[in-house]
Design a protein that fits this description.
2 helices, 76 residues
Length: 76
């Protein structure tokens, strides 16, 4: 596959197909104006749930921070 000036130009037929796909939005939902990190509910109205792996990682980091603070207080 070639990129840059060596790449052949897009023909009108291909451009028409791309434009048609964009207009129809085949199988895609409209884009969200809100970043996913700020969504409080999913599209169907259910609250978003944290993945169990992420939850365990978060709790592990929290436990490590609490242990570090405790050790530093004991050593001081």
């Amino acid at each position: 596959m070639a990129f840059g000036p060596a790449r052949p130009p897009i023909t009108e037929d291909v451009a028409d197909v791309i434009a048609k796909d964009v207009k129809q939005g085949e199988g895609h939902t409209p884009t969200s104006e809100v970043p996913l990190a700020f969504l409080r509910r999913s599209a169907d109205g259910k609250p978003l749930e944290m993945n169990s792996r992420v939850k365990m990682m978060f709790l592990g980091v929290l436990a490590a921070v609490i242990l570090l603070v405790f050790v530093l207080m004991v050593l001081s």
